[in-house]
């Protein structure tokens, strides 16, 4: 989960620390090369007290230089050293992002990219790339690509399942350009020319339910999610919705400010929406700044994958008695991360704050218990029955 209003002091401090660390590593590599020329690496290193990181890296590098059989990629060594250094913090949410890792994280956070709009997965058993589904309203959908199709070639180049990331990148590009896909569907081989367009990921979906109930599903909190929520909620109200079911099941989070803004649309002015605690134990309250335009009764659907920013929204609704929570306990990720982009194009995603419910209850590692615990069930044929949505509608009626 990432706050949109970056805290500059954290950014400055962390950039200084990381830059210094990277510089030190570069110095280590350069110094080692210098020592290698002199032919006395073993002697010089053994004469230095092994009491700091630089010395430890020099010792290991000396052994690598002496015994390692294959060629050495200096940049991979540096990136690997930094990754290991960051991972040793023991925080599963803090990580050093290199190259495409950072690009992918940025794309997921912003929630849009230029491409054809298709979900793909690796079939490891057959080493193939499988089309899970085209996105609604996407060029892939419009072109006739279907779930279950096997992606064989992109621009006349064949790709295996192990090359799924490369194939995905090739399908991206400039808007208005086309990409050629060869698809295998059952025993038939098909060719598609698909135009690339800007794709908005994780779009909000809505529908009207019986009893003037407006249903809104929020799959993620990306850039622009709050604006989209407002537009679609207003359309439901214009169509006669007076009560709402908001579905955040499987919403693993995203940008904090987007979740806060949606909370403001639901909760009256001057109510506490979130409590945050930083490294210095300083506690800060975030309150709603405007009157809510959605005033009808509402139910929020949650499950064990509802996490991070989603839990901020759930806690704000629950603690302010603004609606009922139905489903199962949320994930329990009550910490925020900031993404700090470095001058070399890489980035550091780092945990900076803990957040609690408006009442001050802990979320991290605990989660939020719904008012009504309801589990999904399956019928005799294995079909899932959405008992959680059924319960929400029953409560609103």
Q: Please, could you describe this protein's structure?
A:
By secondary structure, the chain is an alpha+beta fold. The chain folds into three domains: 99 residues, no CATH class; 88 residues, PDZ domain (Pdz3 Domain); 177 residues, 2-enoyl-CoA Hydratase, Chain A, domain 1 (Alpha-Beta Complex), CATH 3.90.226. Helices cover 34% and strands 26% of the residues. The protein is built from eleven helices and 21 strands. The strands form five sheets. Strands 3, 4, 5, 6, 7 and 8 form a six-stranded antiparallel sheet that branches. Strands 10-11-12-15-16-19 form a six-stranded mixed sheet, with helices on both faces. Strands 1, 13, 14, 17 and 18 form a five-stranded antiparallel sheet that branches. Strand 7 and strand 8 form a beta hairpin. Helix 1 crosses helix 3, helix 1 crosses helix 4 and helix 9 packs parallel to helix 10. About 12% of the residues have low confidence.
